[in-house]
Amino acid sequence: MTVAAKDLTKDYKYGFNDGDEFVFRAQKGLTKEVVADISRRKQEPSWMLEFRLKALEHFRQRAMPSWGADLSGIDFDDIYYYVRPADEQGRTWEDVPEGIKKTFDRLGIPEAERKFLGGVSAQYESEVVYHSIRKDLEKLGVLFSDCDTGLREHPEIFRKYFGTVIPANDNKFAALNSAVWSGGSFVYVPKGVRVEVPLQAYFRINTESMGQFERTLIIAEEGSFVHYIEGCTAPTYSKDSLHSAVVEILAMPGAHVRYTTIQNWSNNVYNLVTKRAIARERAVVEWIDGNLGSKVTMKYPSIYLMGEGAHGEVLSVAFAGDGQHQDAGAKVIHVAPNTTSTIVSKSVSKGTGRTSYRGHLKVYPKAHGVKSSVRCDALLLDETSRSDTYPYMDVEAQDVQIGHEASVSKVGDEQLFYLQSRGITEAEATAMIVNGFIEPFVKELPMEYALELNRLIALQMEGSVG
Amino acid sequence: MTELVATGSLTREDAPLAELPGGEPRFLRSLREAARSAYREAPWPSSSRDEDWRRTPQIDRLDPGAYSLPGGGAASAQEIPEHLKRVLDGPMAALANGRTMATDQRGNLPLPGVGEEFEALALRQALTRHPEVWEQVMGRLAQPGLRKFVSLNTILLRGGAAVRIPAGVEAAPIRLVHSVDQGSAAFPRTLVLVEEGASVTLVEEWVSPDDDPSLMAPVVEVLLRPSAHLTHVVEQSCGNATVVQSTIRVRAERDARYDLRFLLLGGSWQKTYFDIDMEGPGSEAKSNGLCIGRRNQHFDVQTLQDHIAGNAVSDLLYRVAVAERARSVFAGLIRVEEGAQKTNAYVQNRNLLLSREAKADSNPTLEILANDVRCTHGSTAGRIDDDQLFYCESRGIPREQARRLVIEGFFADVIDSFPEGTVREAADSLVQEAMEELTLSGALVADSSSA
Q1: Model confidence over B166-211: pLDDT tens digits?
Q2: Is B321's Cβ below 8 Å from some Cβ in A?
Q3: How far apart are CA B256 and CA B167, in angstroms?
Q4: Residue A198 contacts by C-beta under 8 Å, 6 or more apart in sequence?
Q5: Long-range CB contacts (within 8 A, 24+) of B439-442
Q6: H-run or E-run covering B128
Q7: Which of B178, B170, B220 is nearest to B200 (CA)?
Q8: Which residue among A147, A205, B5, B451 is least packed, with the fewest CB closer than 10 Å?
Q9: Residue of B nearest to A359 (CA)
């Protein structure tokens, strides 16, 4: 049974390696010079350099987290903090270098574009190399670019919001990202505009021992709607890689932002991500968060409900195979009255995999009329699998309705028997039950992603019954 | 009054080794020494550093040296303090300031059936008479260095009770009252050994007078042999200036059954651990407890259901009502060890918030290392349901009384789970007393929810 996941690594679908074809690569390790060099090469304004240097200080001062997953395998001195694969940003598909194009072809990006899926912004290593946006979005005044472009071309909007949701000193890894960030997406949706097609970007890591520190900033003005999709796949390498992203979302009054991620880093990546949204009056923020890959993930998408009537939703799935630890969860902070939130977490542990739900629900004293429900379900497939649930709940208001429920169980024998008695093999039956278990998550995904997720689950489930 | 030993050397860093009046077996001496080095080594708990103490910053200000340590030999019946006399009726054994009192010459506690059906002895006599028996219990469940206050209890304990029910015996209920005087610290130790197939109900009460600060820090160790059954009632109704620090550790062997019923009502603040090791297959543990927090009381309850063996069942229900500026902190861990298949475990924590300033933190957690299990937990927080109030009011019941009815209804299933008869009646009257206090303070009148 344990052999299955090793095979999985070997046959990892996206685990190809096109060979390094970078134009510039900063030296390994993290120093002031490296940070200054990144900023200089990007020709950033001086405030950004100061921001980065200050963040570097924070990063150095902060201790490693003593809780959560085991991070002792990270060597900060053995990481490239900046790699730029090609000189220019590709204007059209033809301009994109052949080697990189090949990588994207295997990920199906052009098809995605042909399907009119809005702007496609693919991040290959640290810089966005290809980026397009549909003309009609541009006409609506929607800005969708990589973050570096956002800083260059829209400095007034960028500076106003950048680092306001997640300050550089928020935590050690947010500080690291703030010091060396590169790439990521910048999305601005003007007042009242509804972006009907999802905006999507693919992120990839391709250079051994290379950290990827993308930074995403999404601003949805009053009454607007946007759905942003981030999907991650990474080639498999023998040495550990570090991915530490920061995602900031601002949902202005009445805005609706949905952020969908399917993370499928190869099984040697440390994925330590800070994601946070601020929801103003009547705004809605939804995190749809899937964690399948990586060696260790620590990710707790959070929503600060700052305005009356705001609503937050976190729907997440974690799948941990052999040797993986998915320490994921959600945080919802009810600051304003009459705010509501729902958290649904589904996790599956297989082989020696470990999933942990780590949540935090906080209700401030003046936040009356709060309603919140937290539901965590875990499925354990093997004797060696592990599942933990750590939901924290701080309630400081009286007029609230807070509910939390969690359950851990294995695949039901009756369910298996039922399916097998109808001629389905045990392996198929188990996969069906797992798919059914995560169905509430899958049905929130756009079709292509739902299909991809089902494929990935099927891949993970191969050989799970021995 | 009792003679006091010098307290100068009890600090956050070190504590003077005590000795049982009249001598003690060697194993206890080594437990104390181990506890002392653990106490010296471990830093004082910190709300900013220790996960266990994160929500209880009171610990940062607690100075154990501020309390006096009672010394001398076994207390005599004449020394029974006034506040304790109030609760002394019927067969029971009392322990004042951690020392056993009112035993016969042989050290028997004044309980019916003692010496015939079972043994209930002052700690010293028990350890002298059967050191080999109690060595299997004492310090084995609550290891000397387990927690700072377990270390402290091990170093400083000067008395306690040891109860042993022989195999197959169905013993009469036993009642132990632990009290602590003004300005003092008490470190009583209770050892319980229920042999194969035996059963008993043990009621432990923790009491102290109002207004003057004191520290009540008991440690209880319970070993249940195969098919043994203990109904354990714990009632904390200390005075309003008492700090309570307690650890109760239970080990249930094959097919043993442990029923815990607890009331947390008094004290200024409390940190309490209930740990249950489900060590044998087929063992079963059911815990039901309630807490009524008033004024600025603070109750921090941490529970552990540790499933070491498979095929065991554990259930915990904890209901809390917090009024005025009171705060409840709950952390309940279900841990299923590797190989503990067919485990069925449940935790439920329900919190009723009766004022705007009251707070409830709930943190039920699961750590599951086996796969064929059914483990669930639930947690809720909310105020009194308007519909229920409306229902009562529409039937002519005044709001204040309606609120009280709803709260009583909220607690009913916990109280109903107490052993029938005098035990339940006593528990109910303690709860009624707290409810009365709540009513008199006006906490049920102020309709803060519609403000």
Answers
A1: 999 998 888 888 888 888 899 999 999 999 999 999 999 998 888 8
A2: no
A3: 13
A4: A117, A118, A227, A228, A229, A260, A446
A5: B439/B400, B439/B404, B441/B294, B441/B295, B441/B323, B441/B324
A6: helix B123-129
A7: B170
A8: B451
A9: B363
Chosen for mutation from B318, B346, B368 (greatest number of chain A CBs closer than 10 Å) is B368
Q: What is the pLDDT of residue A462?
A: 66
The β-bridge partners of B378 are A405, B348
* Number of neighbours of residue B332 by Cβ within 10 angstroms: 24
Interacting residues of B50 by C-beta distance below 8 A, sequence separation 6+: none
Among A101-115, A330-344, A429-443, top mean pLDDT goes to A330-344
Structure tokens at A164: 């306001």
- Name, of A35-44, A141-150, A306-315, the range with top average pLDDT: A306-315
Q: Do the interacting molecules here have an ipTM over 0.85? A: no
* Measured distance CA(B80)–CA(B95) in Å, rounded: 9
A465 or B245: whose pLDDT is higher? Answer: B245
Question: What is the DSSP-derived secondary structure letter of residue A210?
Answer: B
- What is the DSSP-derived secondary structure letter of residue A182? -
Distance CA A203, CA B43 (A): 46
- Return the H-helix or E-strand segment holding B31: helix B26-41
Chain B residues with CB inside 8 Å of A394's CB?
Answer: 359, 361
Per-residue pLDDT band at A15 (split at 50, 70, 90): low
Q: Using CA atoms, how far apart are residues B282 and A158, in angstroms rounded to an integer?
A: 62
Q: Does B377 touch chain A (CB under 8 A)?
A: yes
Q: Show the tokens assigned to A5.
A: 């996941």
A338 pLDDT more than 70: yes
Q: Which two tokens stand for residue A37?
A: 């060099």
Taking the CA of residue B372 and the nearest CA in chain A, the distance in Å comes to: 5
**Residue A307: half-sphere exposure toward Cβ, Cα within 13 Å:** 17
Distance (Å) from the C-alpha of residue B49 to the closest C-alpha of chain A? 10
Q: Which residues contact A83 (CB under 8 A, 6 or more apart)?
A: A22, A24, A25, A26, A125, A126, A207, A210
| Distance (Å, whole) CA A289 – CA A302 | 11
Domain boundaries of chain B, sorted by first residue? 4-279
Which residue type occupies A334?
H
State the DSSP string of B64-93. Answer: GGGSBEE-SSPBPGGG--HHHHTT--SS-E
Tokens standing for A127? 């810089």
Non-local (6+) Cβ contacts of B393 within 8 A are B399, B402
Using one digit for the tens of pLDDT, what is the confidence trace for A191-206?
999 998 888 775 545 5
pLDDT in tens, B146-162: 999 999 999 999 888 89
Q: 3-state DSSP helix/strand/coil percent for chain A, to nearest 5?
A: 25, 35, 35
- Gyration radius of chain A over CA positions: 21
- The pLDDT tens digits of the residues spanning A356-395 come to 999 999 999 889 899 999 999 999 988 889 999 998 888 8
Confidence of residue A106 (pLDDT cuts 50, 70, 90): low
Please report where in the chains the tokens 């008492």 appear, as a residue. Answer: B242
* Segment B378-399, tens digit of pLDDT: 999 998 888 888 898 899 999 8
Give A466 to chain B, closest Cα distance, Å. 16
> What pTM was estimated for this model as a whole?
0.82
Residue carrying structure tokens 């069925």: B344
B353–A contact, CB cutoff 8 A: yes
Q: Name B184's bridge partners.
A: B68
Strand locations in B124-237, DSSP E? 160-165, 174-179, 185-186, 189-194, 199-207, 214-216, 219-224, 229-236
Question: Six-digit token pair at A404?
Answer: 């939390």
The residue whose two tokens read 């489900």 is B278
Q: Tell me the three state secondary structure of residue B361.
A: strand
